[in-house]
Amino acid sequence: MGTGSKNLQRIEAGQNLTLRTRGLLAETLQVDPHELLQPVGSGISGMVDDPVATLRAIGVRVELGRARPGARFIPVLSLAVAAGYLREPAAVEVLAWCELPGRRARPPVGTFVARVAGDSMQPRIPRGSWCVFGPVAGGSLVDRILLVEHRGVVDPDPGGSFAVKKIAAVESLRSGRRLVTLAPLNGRYKPHIIEVSEAEELRPVAELVAVLSSD
């Protein structure tokens, strides 16, 4: 592999396994990269945590490495890093690159694929679905499903300060602040109401374009 023994020890301990290192390992062992993520002794291909195997299983063309110039490939991201990728693409490690089936035109800049955990957006987004997100278009955000970022959000779906929710309402207050209602589609979950003073406090990261699959 061309790597030092100490680095190899860290890899064997579950550390420093970047996409580049994973590709080197797969090439050295002459196996598909996703096989390196399977449990020892497992004969089951395509673990849930492996985006390459799960996307390929539903007919999506997936490649590792960098996207080819001019190709119709879009990044496969974690929702928790999507905002960082849209701000500084070079600073975020992309899980993989995929070409959406049935798409001839190149998707708009800012389009990506990510997996949504949890079931707060069922039935529109079943648990574990791979979804296509795109840039947020202008106009009112009400009644649209968005990936939003806010430091006050604690959501079980993407986790951290991100949430995939329907913007159910935006109410202006006399103080100049606004109440934004983030609504789940699953009736078992309650809406999340956030009070903001400026648009930047609740930032729409991306808009749901399509649901590709679910487990």
Main sheet? Answer: 10 strands, mixed
What are the secondary-structure elements, in order, as H or E? HHHEEHEEEEEEEE
- Secondary-structure-based class equals alpha+beta
**Span between termini:** 35 Å
Strand order of the largest sheet: 1-3-2-4-5-10-6-7-8-9
- The residue-averaged pLDDT reads 78
Number of strand segments: 10
Task: Describe the global form.
Answer: elongated
Oligomer: single chain
Helix content: 10-25%
- Rg measurement, Å: 19 Å
> How much β-strand is present in the residues?
25-35%
Which stretches are poorly predicted, pLDDT < 50 over at least 5 residues? 39-48
Secondary structure tally, helices: 4
What features would you describe in this structure?
With 215 residues, this protein is α+β, with helices and mostly antiparallel strands. The protein has 4 helices and 10 strands, in the order H-H-H-E-E-H-E-E-E-E-E-E-E-E. The chain is 16% helix and 28% strand. It has a 10-stranded mixed sheet, with helices on both faces.
Q: What is the strand and helix layout of this fold?
A:
Elements: H1 5-12, H2 19-29, H3 51-57, E1 61-63, E2 73-77, H4 79-87, E3 96-99, E4 112-116, E5 129-134, E6 145-149, E7 162-172, E8 178-183, E9 192-196, E10 203-213
Parallel strand pairs: 2-4
Antiparallel strand pairs: 1-3, 2-3, 4-5, 5-10, 6-7, 6-10, 7-8, 8-9
